[in-house]
Amino acid sequence: MGHADVADELEDATGISVAQVNRSFGDIVALEAIDLHVSRHQRVGIVGPSGCGKSSLLALVCGLDEPTSGSINVLGGHSAAERLAACAWMPQRDLLLPWRTVLANASLPLENKGLSKRDAYAIVEPLFERFGLGGFEQRFPYELSGGMRQRVSFLRTLVAGKDVLLLDEPFGALDSITRADVQQWLRSALDDEPRTVLLVTHDVEEAVLLSDVVVVISPRPGRIVARIPISLAPVNTRRDAVMQPDFIAARGEVLDALEA
Amino acid sequence: MSNVDGNNGASRGLAEAAPKRSKDKGSPLRERLRNLGPAIGVLVGLVVFWELACRFLSVPAYILPPPSSIIATLIKKWDTTLASATWVTLSEVAIGFALSLITGIGFAILLHASPHVRRAIYPLLIGSQTIPIIVIGPILAIIFGYNIVPKVLLVTLICFFPIVVTTIDGLASVDPQLKRMMKTLYGTAWSTFRRVEFPAALPSMFSGIRVAATYASIGAVFGEYAGSSNGLGYVMIQATPQMQTSLVFAAILLLSLISVVLFALVSLAERLLVPWAKEGRS
After folding, report:
1. Residues of B in contact with A142 (CB under 8 A)
2. ipTM of this predicted structure
3. Which domain holds residue B153?
4. What is the pLDDT of residues A109-164, one digit of tens each?
5. DSSP code string of B115-157
6. Residue B99 belongs to some domain of the structure
7. What is the CATH number of the domain that holds B138?
8. Chain A residues with CB inside 8 Å of B16's CB?
9. Which domains, ranges and CATH numbers included, belong to chain A?
């Protein structure tokens, strides 16, 4: 897989650092004493039961929300604006704009940056082939399958050119066959173009398959109850990956931590 | 749309999308006409029934003229009365409707942009709708006289409300997740407005504009009732006491024709500007 080496190389570089973060909504404590260190280009999977504050954590990291107490550092920036500038956030639903073609949807971050439509398209169009979307540039989102729409959404997130990707159950809305396919595709896409990734999911296999470290969060109030390093032998297919003993052992560890 | 696509997602998607597109482009006009068929059938049936009932029941023409006599009056009085009256009313409707589009959409954007202004104005705007538009007509006539201004203002007033309300609702109903996502994709307030909020508000806005299009001619007629020297409403108010009932009906026919044309134009604009609205919501 190779990304473990990259992480070693950049060990000193901090991607995301969350220190003693608490977040309450009124009387409800969503997150409690969260400490999380993510090296640059490391991939961290976050699993936990529904309502444990996983999504709140992502909102805090990318500067859409502020912690009640504690500090968050993303690529050296502490303020919400600095965090917002460093992070791209991809939600569970693809949130493609139905009035834009797929190409125009993927170009959105560049247009927001001030590029003309023509310049933005010129940059984004060559990426379509690699994302398995070749020939669909001028289609509208409703003409695409769920898996393809999610790939467009991911392409849009990548086009923003940000180092930190916050993926909030990116494949949660897909059926299991499509999800397996897109997981494998995402793994290779991230190997080609390493990014610092926080992946929130309720799918333990997905977390183990795509992450260097899996962090388990307890039911509310959300606390980190386990950090499980993952090292899988490099294999070609998802099927081979999920059959290997290391994978099965890691999955067992995560499940134990979830049930503890 | 099914989500089940394995590694062959691309090829399958193509095969699926291609026939769909050709079907979309097929013959929308013919299909629309076919959809209108039953309505036209009912209309023709009613007109025939009306004509026969008038003839066989010997209804006096000053009470209910048969359609044939309405058409005859329409043709006879076109040059002398109806052509200029139609032109006057059409101008009032067109100018008033255009004004309501500009002010209504502009006002909605202003209220959307500033929550303070919205809190101060929106309840008053809703409250203003409890004033019957008919009573405003004479007041406007007193202020502005017998010219075109009070009629245009009445059309604008009557069309303004549905446009403002549906536009504000459309702007406010944008998925909050979408706005958050825009923030992480370099979206400023302005780029979020023009690339997300405004396009997302269009379907809702157009439903308000369509309602406004049907109200517009009512405003013009009320304005003419309150004081005028020409227009279809003026023709009606002159013809009624003279028992020229078929002329009243001819004016009504022309008036509804104005509404139908306006409505059709709005629908056409909607199809051109918001083609994604039908399929896009999934």
Report:
1. 1, 276, 279-280, 282
2. 0.80
3. 65-280
4. 999 989 898 999 999 888 888 777 888 888 999 888 888 888 899 889 988 888 88
5. HHHHHHHHHHHHHHTTS-HHHHHHHHHHHH-SSHHHHHHHHHH
6. yes
7. 1.10.3720.10
8. 145
9. 3-259 (3.40.50.300)
